[in-house]
């Protein structure tokens, strides 16, 4: 309890707030909602989306420590034992200190296991204890009702109460996993016994949320009787709430009763065996194996796969506009050097817009930028596709600014930037825009729905169609084969002329080697197989021409 009460300290909270790129996460949260088709969102939806972005940011910004690097030469170390904490370490809750010796220079490096979140926002490193401690603190900094979950089989994570769903949500910052409570029992193969949620408002036994084998778990709960566990936790909770008003008491008791009913029902739910969950991802393989947390060898997939709607009309509009600009250059025999110059200027303008605060995007045009709009009528079409407008003949300096649709601009700008980057890369590599090689192409399909063989958050199936290079559809079982099924919006029938695949900035050996396309209406017919493909590493596009595939959907 002393630990979680530190989360409420205003001084600690103010220090933590300064370490988070709040506006960036707010923008990403609104973009994530827009990708689901939610452009006008409620506060609860925005708060929920921000929480998920906070989780993803934390996963990227905090560092896992197997063994610390040498303080002297920054090389690998090996643990040699435990040491006594120094006063400066005790000050921030480090009751244990691990001692490591450098494998190269033999210097000693200390790894104090800090418990004070104020110190953790500075060190930004540790194992599951530090990760969950610090992330739960960040949740409290942003006003979420949060619990630190202590698992007696040696793991720690977070729960937050979601006003959007009206229930407690599981969050594991080490794994970057959200709302997947069976991860430990089904994925890691953990033999759970007690999982206790600790917050400023009380202590709760929430083990039932994390198991579908309650009778097995019950047989391992041997510390004391179940009645004694309940009595102890109720007594602590009563003390935690002693200073609250009667209305606050009633609200918390109502929430407790609802949660108790949910947990009781959870023990009767069956496991969905069609959903496989991964073993532990954080920590070295040796460390995970020693803890028996690697899970099953064939358990790779992280989530079930709902049908998802592609919110990508802006991608098609951007590609149409850029295609029109390139066609203009091609038809008028504009020298390639001039084309590159125009796109470099255009890219600089869009990058400046992207770097501006999303709430007030505006960039003053220099002479080169103004010339683009004077010589290219289709440049206005590109701005419109990004929800931008040029203000060339108004009082003050000529500028480009958002047209008021802030989130649409945030959603579309990265797409336009990536497309311009690819155009520039092609021209600088002497790959010019011709009828034989066209990127981007007009008449791109959009706004359909997509279903995947599997997916891993946040790399969901729609990421394959969002026009952004850095996002990707990730299929954890892809080594065994995978598929996407795309259904055209509104039940239309369309003729598929070609499709593109782009390699992620990842391992090329995991990219597809055989890419058949089949209509959804007549499986096995209209098939266009591409065999023995090897896509080079890092954002390489390959186009496949297709013949005689007319359908409402493709797989």
TrEMBL record:
Keyword Calcium appears in the UniProt entry: no
Residues of the Transglutaminase-like domain: 120-175
Gene3D superfamilies from the UniProt entry: 2.20.25.10, 3.10.620.30
Keyword Ion transport on entry: no
SUPFAM superfamilies, per the entry: Cysteine proteinases
Domain of life of the source: Eukaryota
Molecular function as annotated in GO: metal ion binding
InterPro entries referenced in this protein's UniProt entry, alphabetically: Papain-like_cys_pep_sf, Transglutaminase-like
Record's keyword terms, sorted: Metal-binding, Zinc
Pfam families: Transglut_core
Similarity remark: Belongs to the transglutaminase-like superfamily. PNGase family.
Protein name (record): Transglutaminase-like domain-containing protein
């Amino acid at each position: 309890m002393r630990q979680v009460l530190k989360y409420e300290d205003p001084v600690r909270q103010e220090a933590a707030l300064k370490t988070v790129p709040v506006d960036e996460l707010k923008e990403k949260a609104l973009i994530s909602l827009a990708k689901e088709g939610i452009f006008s969102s409620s506060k609860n939806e925005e708060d929920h989306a921000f929480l998920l972005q906070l989780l993803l940011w934390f996963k990227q910004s905090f560092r896992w420590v197997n063994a610390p690097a040498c303080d002297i030469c920054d090389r690998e170390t090996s643990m040699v034992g435990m040491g006594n904490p120094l006063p400066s370490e005790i000050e921030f809750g480090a009751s244990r200190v691990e001692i490591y010796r450098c494998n190269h220079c033999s210097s000693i490096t200390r790894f104090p296991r800090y418990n004070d979140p104020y110190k953790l926002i500075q060190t930004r490193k540790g194992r599951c204890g530090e990760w969950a401690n610090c992330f739960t603190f960040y949740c409290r900094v942003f006003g979420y009702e949060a619990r630190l979950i202590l698992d007696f089989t040696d793991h720690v994570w977070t729960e937050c109460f979601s006003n959007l769903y009206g229930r407690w949500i599981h969050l594991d910052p080490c794994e970057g996993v959200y709302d997947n409570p069976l991860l430990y029992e089904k994925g890691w193969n953990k033999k759970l016994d007690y999982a206790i949620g600790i917050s400023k408002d009380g202590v709760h036994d929430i083990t039932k949320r994390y198991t579908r084998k309650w009778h097995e778990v019950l047989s391992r709960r041997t510390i004391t009787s179940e009645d004694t566990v309940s009595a102890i936790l109720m007594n602590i909770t009563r003390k935690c709430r002693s200073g609250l008003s009667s209305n606050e008491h009633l609200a918390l008791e109502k929430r407790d009763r609802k949660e108790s009913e949910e947990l009781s029902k959870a023990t009767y739910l069956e496991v969905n065996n069609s959903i496989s969950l991964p073993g532990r991802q954080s920590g070295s393989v040796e460390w995970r194996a020693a803890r028996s947390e690697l899970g099953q060898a064939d358990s790779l997939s992280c989530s079930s796969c709902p049908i998802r709607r592609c919110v990508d009309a802006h991608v098609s509009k951007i590609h149409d506009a850029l295609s029109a600009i390139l066609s203009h250059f091609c038809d008028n025999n504009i020298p390639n050097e001039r084309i590159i110059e125009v796109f470099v200027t255009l890219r600089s303008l869009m990058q400046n817009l992207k770097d501006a605060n999303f709430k007030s995007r505006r960039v003053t045009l220099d002479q080169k930028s103004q010339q683009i709009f004077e010589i290219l009528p289709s440049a206005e079409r590109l701005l419109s596709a990004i929800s931008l407008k040029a203000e060339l003949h108004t009082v003050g300096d000529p500028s480009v600014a958002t047209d008021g649709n802030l989130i649409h601009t945030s959603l579309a700008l990265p797409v336009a930037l990536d497309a311009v980057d690819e155009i520039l890369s092609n021209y600088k590599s002497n790959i010019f825009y011709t009828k034989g090689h066209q990127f981007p192409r007009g008449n791109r399909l959009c706004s359909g729905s997509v279903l995947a063989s599997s997916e891993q958050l946040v790399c969901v199936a729609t990421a394959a169609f969002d026009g952004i290079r850095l996002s990707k559809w990730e299929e954890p079982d892809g080594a065994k084969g995978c598929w996407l099924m795309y259904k055209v919006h509104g039940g239309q029938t369309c003729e598929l002329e070609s499709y593109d695949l782009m390699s992620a900035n990842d391992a090329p050996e995991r990219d597809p080697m055989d890419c058949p396309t089949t209509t959804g209406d007549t499986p096995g017919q209209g098939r266009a197989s591409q065999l023995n493909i090897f896509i080079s590493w890092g954002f390489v596009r390959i186009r496949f021409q297709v013949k005689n595939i007319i359908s409402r959907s493709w797989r």
